[in-house]
Structures are given as structure tokens and as C-alpha cells.
Design a protein that fits this description.
With 296 residues, this protein is α+β, with helices and mostly antiparallel strands. The protein has 3 domains: 112 residues, Helix Hairpins, CATH 1.10.287; 52 residues, Roll (SH3 type barrels); 85 residues, Alpha-Beta Plaits, CATH 3.30.70. The protein contains 7 helices and 8 strands, in the order H-H-H-H-H-E-E-E-E-E-E-H-E-E-H. The longest helix has 42 residues. The C terminus is likely disordered.
């Protein structure tokens, strides 16, 4: 009974409730203040990098500013979140100094159990500081996942694919990076024509079509379109290869343009692009197409 009475008396203690209320108000004030500070600091960082981005003429520098802006904002949120947790714990009597002192020993123990996390963070730091890719770059990671980089974080990288899907890859698993946005791209287009066509006539036609495409899409092609020559001899076609240097990541669009203009140009000049045909012979037909006669 004495224990029960003490328990009831504890909850009936007015001073205890007043002290708890003061602590809760202090915690609420700390959370609100740090939240406002986080919003102000992230807004300031975003504005500073937005101004820098406007002053930069290079697309690469603009993407780098965007990447660093998101990284700085995330770092501010993490640091303020940690400060918030430690301050709230201090309001409830937790020894913050002892907690920080023991963090080194605890961190060593945790690191053995979270080696993949540590690897992700270290690899992410190298990706950012070595400028391997930035927000807005079109990349292929590990020769498997490709898309536009929408966020480069300390632990993960987010890619948006052509179909809109978002892939999140831990940085520690990134072994190979293919960046299509660092240098000019090369569009490679193969087109087949029938064996019956005159090769000199076909090559002259391709050169003429290439010049027409360059004049029509002058902003697309950095260098003149080059006819590399005969790429292969197929079962029913002679394959010609064209190559064109274009701005970064524009090789997909340039390839579609060339295919369209080559088809239209060949049709205009009477050059045949071969396609499969099926010949139907009626029963009891000879190979020449005539009907066989049965002896009477």
C-alpha cells in the first residue's frame, strides 16, 4: 500500500507537473527555433547557389552548383537535427558531455556493424569531390542502370530513367560510371540499302542528305556528318554507317533525326531500303510460277 500511495502522490505532485510543463515548453521552443533556423539557413544556401548559377555560363558549372546546393542543404538539416536531439535530451537530464565522450567508443563498435554504410559515405564523398557526375548529367552506373541524375547525396545517388522511374543506388555499390554529359556525344547511325543499288550513287545520296540535315538542324551537329563507309554486308542489304558529333546527351535525338531524313531522302531519290518479302505459290506450281500439267 505504501508503494501505491507513493505512486499516486507522485502524480498528484503539482510541482512535478509544473516542472514537466516547463520542460515541454522548452523542448517545443527548441524544436521550433531550430526548425526555423534550418529553413533560414537552407534558404540562404539555395539563394546563394542560385545567384552563382545565374552568373555561370557553362552548363557544367551550373549543374555543379545545383549539386553542391542540395548537398549543403542536406548537411545543414543533418547537423541541426543532431543538435536538436542532443538539446532535447539535455532538457530531460541526460548527460550530454558523457554521451558525446562515449560516442567515440560507440562509433567504433557501430562502424564494424555498419561497414556498408561507411563505404557508401566514403564513396559518396569521392564522387562529389572528384566531380564524377552532377545533377542533370545523363549517366550509366555499373553498365546496368542509366538515367538523369536528380540527386547526389553522401550515401545514395538517385537516377530518373527515360520512363520516369527513379532508381536509388547506394554509393558504395557504384563500381563503374559512364557519364554522357562531360564531353560531346557521337551519334552512330546504320542504314541498309538493297544490293541492287549502285554504291557510288548511294554514297553520293547519303552525302547530299547529310548536308541537308546539317543545314536544317544547324544547332544539333557540332561537326559535319561523316560517312564512315560500308559497315557490313547483310543477308539482303548493304549497311552504311554515319557518325556525327553532337552536344552532350543529344546522340539519341540526332540518331532519330538522321533515320527520319535518310528514309525521306532515299524515297525521294528512288533508293530502296530492303525489307522482308513473302512469296506465296499455289499448290502444284512450278518454281517459275506456271502450273504443272499431269500426263493423261
Amino acid at each position: 500500500m505504501d508503494s501505491v500511495n507513493q505512486f499516486v502522490a507522485y502524480f498528484q505532485d503539482t510541482d512535478m507537473w509544473i516542472g514537466l510543463g516547463i520542460k515541454l515548453l522548452g523542448v517545443a521552443f527548441i524544436i521550433v527555433a531550430l526548425y526555423v533556423a534550418s529553413r533560414i539557413l537552407t534558404s540562404m544556401v539555395q539563394r546563394v547557389f542560385a545567384i552563382r548559377k545565374l552568373k555561370e555560363e557553362s552548363i557544367v558549372a551550373q549543374r555543379q552548383n545545383e549539386t553542391l546546393s542540395k548537398l549543403a542543404q542536406n548537411t545543414i538539416r543533418y547537423v541541426i537535427g543532431l543538435i536538436m536531439v542532443l538539446t532535447v535530451l539535455g532538457q530531460f537530464g541526460v548527460n550530454i558531455a558523457g554521451l558525446i565522450a562515449s560516442a567515440g567508443v560507440a562509433g567504433l563498435a557501430i562502424s564494424f556493424g555498419a561497414q556498408s554504410l561507411v563505404k557508401d559515405v566514403i564513396t559518396g564523398a569521392f564522387i562529389i569531390f572528384e566531380n564524377q557526375y552532377k545533377n542533370g548529367d545523363y549517366v550509366k552506373l555499373n553498365q546496368e542502370v542509366e538515367g538523369i541524375v536528380i540527386e547526389v547525396g553522401i550515401r545514395t545517388t538517385k537516377l530518373k530513367g527515360l520512363n520516369g522511374q527513379v532508381s536509388i543506388i547506394p554509393n558504395g555499390q557504384i563500381m563503374q560510371v559512364t557519364n554522357y554529359s562531360l564531353e560531346n556525344s557521337v551519334a552512330v547511325v546504320d542504314v541498309g540499302v538493297a544490293y541492287e543499288e549502285d554504291m557510288d550513287h548511294v554514297e553520293d545520296a547519303i552525302q547530299e542528305i547529310a548536308k541537308e540535315v546539317e543545314a536544317k538542324y544547324h544547332d544539333m551537329f557540332v561537326e559535319p556528318i561523316m560517312l564512315a563507309g560500308v559497315q557490313s554486308l547483310g543477308a539482303s542489304e548493304v549497311v552504311y554507317r554515319l557518325m556525327a558529333e553532337v552536344p552532350p546527351t543529344q546522340h539519341f535525338a540526332a540518331g532519330r533525326i538522321l533515320h527520319k531524313e535518310l528514309k525521306a531522302g532515299f524515297d525521294k531519290r528512288g533508293i530502296e531500303i530492303p525489307y522482308p518479302r513473302t512469296v506465296m505459290l499455289p499448290p502444284n506450281s512450278s518454281s517459275e510460277g506456271g502450273t504443272t500439267e499431269h500426263a493423261k
